[in-house]
Amino acid sequence: MAYFQSKPTSGRHFLQIPGPSNTPDRVLRAMDYPTMDHRGPDFGRFGKQLLEKLRGVFKTSQPVVVFPASGTGAWEAALANTLSPGDRVLMCETGWFAHLWQELAGKLGLKPELIETDWRRGADVAAIEAALREDKAHGIKAVCVVHNETSTGATSRIAAVRKAIDAAGHPALLLVDTISGLASIDYRHDEWGVDVTIAGSQKGLMLPPGLSFNAISQKALKAAEGAGIPRSYWDWRPMLAANAQGFFPSTPATNLLYGLDAAIDMLMEEGLDNVFARHDRFAEATRRAVRAWGLEVQVEVPGEYSSVLTAVRLPEGHSANALRATILEKFNMSLGNGLGRLNDRVFRIGHLGDFGPLQLVGTLGGVEMGLGAAGVPHKPGGVQAAMAYLNGNA
Amino acid sequence: MAYFQSKPTSGRHFLQIPGPSNTPDRVLRAMDYPTMDHRGPDFGRFGKQLLEKLRGVFKTSQPVVVFPASGTGAWEAALANTLSPGDRVLMCETGWFAHLWQELAGKLGLKPELIETDWRRGADVAAIEAALREDKAHGIKAVCVVHNETSTGATSRIAAVRKAIDAAGHPALLLVDTISGLASIDYRHDEWGVDVTIAGSQKGLMLPPGLSFNAISQKALKAAEGAGIPRSYWDWRPMLAANAQGFFPSTPATNLLYGLDAAIDMLMEEGLDNVFARHDRFAEATRRAVRAWGLEVQVEVPGEYSSVLTAVRLPEGHSANALRATILEKFNMSLGNGLGRLNDRVFRIGHLGDFGPLQLVGTLGGVEMGLGAAGVPHKPGGVQAAMAYLNGNA
Amino acid sequence: MAYFQSKPTSGRHFLQIPGPSNTPDRVLRAMDYPTMDHRGPDFGRFGKQLLEKLRGVFKTSQPVVVFPASGTGAWEAALANTLSPGDRVLMCETGWFAHLWQELAGKLGLKPELIETDWRRGADVAAIEAALREDKAHGIKAVCVVHNETSTGATSRIAAVRKAIDAAGHPALLLVDTISGLASIDYRHDEWGVDVTIAGSQKGLMLPPGLSFNAISQKALKAAEGAGIPRSYWDWRPMLAANAQGFFPSTPATNLLYGLDAAIDMLMEEGLDNVFARHDRFAEATRRAVRAWGLEVQVEVPGEYSSVLTAVRLPEGHSANALRATILEKFNMSLGNGLGRLNDRVFRIGHLGDFGPLQLVGTLGGVEMGLGAAGVPHKPGGVQAAMAYLNGNA
Amino acid sequence: MAYFQSKPTSGRHFLQIPGPSNTPDRVLRAMDYPTMDHRGPDFGRFGKQLLEKLRGVFKTSQPVVVFPASGTGAWEAALANTLSPGDRVLMCETGWFAHLWQELAGKLGLKPELIETDWRRGADVAAIEAALREDKAHGIKAVCVVHNETSTGATSRIAAVRKAIDAAGHPALLLVDTISGLASIDYRHDEWGVDVTIAGSQKGLMLPPGLSFNAISQKALKAAEGAGIPRSYWDWRPMLAANAQGFFPSTPATNLLYGLDAAIDMLMEEGLDNVFARHDRFAEATRRAVRAWGLEVQVEVPGEYSSVLTAVRLPEGHSANALRATILEKFNMSLGNGLGRLNDRVFRIGHLGDFGPLQLVGTLGGVEMGLGAAGVPHKPGGVQAAMAYLNGNA
């Protein structure tokens, strides 16, 4: 099986893309149990408990539904369940994933209106408020924001977006993609008044890809009754009906659900606040390394740095993709590529999920050695700077 | 973790529903490897090889696409990629899953026209031909048939359906659901002239649920260009573009793909013809057991018996669900329930996937003992009859 | 890897030898965790808890030591820790394993004295008592009995042996091999006054082979101080010293200990009495099948039937090994061979460990079909008889 | 299960003791397959192939036997099979493990004669030759050397020892412990004329502990015929007889053998020479880090540095155990403790087995941060020095 034999005995691969993250052994082993009858009483008990536990991760007391699908499926579900063809949606183009979301909206017959950024910061909250205030007729049906933009490493201030919508007195729904943010950085579906939260399994939840999520407010549920985009697979209504007894309308991805159960247990044993603090600490250490190398972090606004990943800009005339290829070849580490307009301009370091301080040191070491091996101008000392911070001596 | 602790030390659970089938250890262990970078060069090589191997299972040289989704998702993909709102589709209601497909078509804005059956046989080929001959204007855009109806245990003669369409000189597409048939019973996407084949991972492919498939003819690909149902997640076009290099447009369910790779290897090592013969043999043994008990097989047409599962009718006044509960409680075996109008009237024995003769004897023993324990009138000797057949002494 | 590819996709192998038994998934998955530092604080805590839990399985409050070794190693440990070259030991030759034990004693320089049987019953308690009464000089230093003779399926009455020793007023140590009995049938180290109990991992404890055990009375510990057989690896003293803190004097088989921990949890969740009752029930069902076939159980004394395995005699002129080869080839089931003088005369059915009623029905079905396929004269109906008993209708 | 829950979600544990080493997933997954019949034909084929493959790792065409036991068991086997009580054996006390070996020899009734060292170098070859020359009567029956002394990180020059024995014209057997050396650093059983090689599973072979090995010369086999230490479990003769058909005289540790099979495949895919070069490179990088910190490597002779592990001396007045506790607590890494007279004076860094460059950087980073956190005087820059070397810029 080629996928695990390509580098025999050369030690553990460092999977430092910003998701899928490193799946812990406990989750992999949970997934390795025999599939069970998804319509039997044991499954019903399991499903009910799991769906209940899942709410804790989103900090919500409202329903969370699970699709066997990638995160883009959960995006489609969010739009298809709440909107109708021709509806206007306000979208904040914070990066590549926000861009993809807008494309998706177009394919479903929606009319996206873009608030652009330079891909070096989070969503422009003031611009959102302004656009909504201007929309006296309330033609805008939803505001779509990416909480953690995986292509740039910028976070958007969701609580502030909520406040802006309220300040404008606008009834638009708030749809938030936290696919790469959930369970790595603070997220509060209820407190922040999000209507639909979109998430995936392969990031902070530490699972392999294959599951995605919608957390759903009462307002969104009500919108679902009148939404006009044709839908079946993504339809929340049969899902919620079956979920009430712990079941699913079509066959669920049982073994991934086993893994989800184990992953939530791990997160809760560590404590979500500890998980977030760990990510914050590793992200700060990473940025210190980047600066010590004399390189630039893609995000320019300190309050909007992501603790999930750090995108690093290469000096003009140097190829991020060549650097990544060198690091993969020589040091057995995968880093994230630049997406869209950032292709070859940045590389992305994932420091999320089941990840500890020495894995981070190894990761930064791989980057530092790779910069040397690939001939990218830089100063040594990044790892040293990160260690100094991690050790409380910064 | 409740899902594997409910029956401590009482031996291996018999998962004899008609899918998910028993996942072999080799597939589970393959899935238990660390997730890899789905955009890296190792994945590209792996993906290309896997997609190529996958064609062999469908007996096609045309593309097969893989969705992280349940089988119903692959249904939606088949319809959404080839049809437009308002299109008429001819559907054969062979049982519950055919019924669900028709509901789904309605939700997408299509106009299903039903050819009904009594749920005790495959699709009515003559009726299909008649309907198409009558449709001189070629308003019918697709004929939808379930190859292996999991709710009844009836197979439909797909080659004959193809012939009927051709005999009628009708240009309708032929869409076939072989979710529970593929890799258990003979199926030939190319030779039978199927335009879209719909399949899932958790049956003959011996995987946990979470992946589904479309095999796609050139004619279907062409239809995709003009199809008008809004689609994004299910859209074949970006999928095929990425697949050409072994990649996927959104994050694939990597660990399930590892399992798929192992499962195809197992099928090919045994040989598809041997796999089919094994299923045929176990199905005949099962029917002999049913008859020995004095019970009735749901399907009435010998040429349309499924080798994947056998649905068994209970005598009037007896509850199939009570029987199943007794068997689960006393013998740690899950059987399939009756669906739709067959609820509580039949139970279904899955004899598919990674399944050997002694597992079959145990399965039939559990049914025979359960009939006794639940007070269902029957004659003993079913297991004996099955063993006589299996041993070549029938 | 040849060991799991030889029968691709033909379903689960039935491992019905009388040990190694079928290892449950939960135990295999526990063993699949990364090895930990066997000298670190986490291990110390784990080791202490595990050694404490382990006592419950032996029904003792005295020490139990664990060797990375097969069961024969634990035999050697029992003798080497308590005896000196030239010591006389009274041994009961109940079958092949008792015979091997005697050979082992000879190799260590002991003088075994044999009480023979016809290999169709347990140890002759009256003969033990007589021999001890005759030994006025107390030259006999130990009485060695096999609790569950795996080669014949006979159990010896250990409590009665203890009583016989006491009645004779003899100070000999009582050494008992319950390698294949422990955790399948009742065993009481303390209550029965056993001095050294010898056990292994791969039978009722449901683990793979690789660990073996000595439970040790105070009297045996005292004997260890004066014992003269040179010993190092097997020496209890450094073992007990390290065990006090949860550690081991040389590197323990860490991953097998993980599995042991999981296995004990499973046994305690089911409850040892329930485990024993399950084995008794399956053994009685098996004997009923054997009699229905018109064959003979090797053991002749009903009170000494083992619930762990059943050895079945073949009619004169028929080969048990040919039968076993047929069953392996046609039905993918491994049965135990006849050992020593029983080679080719009996086959042995293991019905121990992680084993449920439908696995038993499949096992007996494989034997019944195999008898037919191999041309061994028999009457059909064995499986039927077993099912009637299992279903409470006998 | 306490052994894997103590540090929830804080990332992967760094197991950097000098064995057990980090077991690769491929080996763990191989061990996770169901146990098979150790007396059946599939096992015979598997066993024969495995025993054959195993010889390649020892670079021998002579037999290699496998015991379910720790490495100390294989020591005992080497002595017990070749020597008789009262025999004189020449032993080189290179460190704690050599010391234990001498203790063991004494327990078996042998008369060890010691050639001491200061535990900072390999065996004194000249002293060996001198002692043998002096032994005109050939009373010394064996020379015992530790190839890779795990307590100090010193290697002994085995080829030179062989030459010394030959130069002295002495018939003593050469017994070599390469428990921690095999499959990490160069070892040649045949070419170096070793009579018994002793090895274990949990070091360079990348397995969990539980298996140990003897590679056996013809001369040693001949000695086994006359050896007088009582032996049964360790006896080579029944082992070799059974091994000829791929079987074992008592139940083998089947699942560990699965892992061994996978591990040998991995080593051979990488190529033993590449494996050795990788270890050499990581060891040199480690020593550069140690020197950059201003600390001292325990071994003083450059030609005798081990590439398996590096023992590092602490400045006077500082506790190596306190340092290790700090590193475990803060950085989730296990390091080896000082043994015997080196307790608390050194800590040992294992850089063996399934180990890559970024794991090494993380490991050294953990040490460097730990030195700071524990207040051990040192200069920063060790990681930097190691990286410079690893990157070819040294």
UniProtKB/TrEMBL annotation, chains A, B, C, D:
Recorded GO MF terms: alanine-glyoxylate transaminase activity; L-serine-pyruvate transaminase activity
Gene3D superfamilies found in the cross-reference section: Aspartate Aminotransferase, domain 1, Type I PLP-dependent aspartate aminotransferase-like (Major domain)
Cofactor: pyridoxal 5'-phosphate
GO biological process: glycine biosynthetic process, by transamination of glyoxylate
Residues covered by the Aminotransferase class V domain: 15-318
Keyword Transferase part of the UniProt annotation: yes
Record: residues binding substrate: R348
Keywords annotated in UniProt: Aminotransferase, Pyridoxal phosphate, Transferase
Residues recorded with modification N6-(pyridoxal phosphate)lysine: K203
Region described as Disordered: 1-21
Family designation: Belongs to the class-V pyridoxal-phosphate-dependent aminotransferase family.
PANTHER family on file: ALANINE--GLYOXYLATE AMINOTRANSFERASE, AMINOTRANSFERASE CLASS V
Protein name: Aminotransferase class V-fold PLP-dependent enzyme
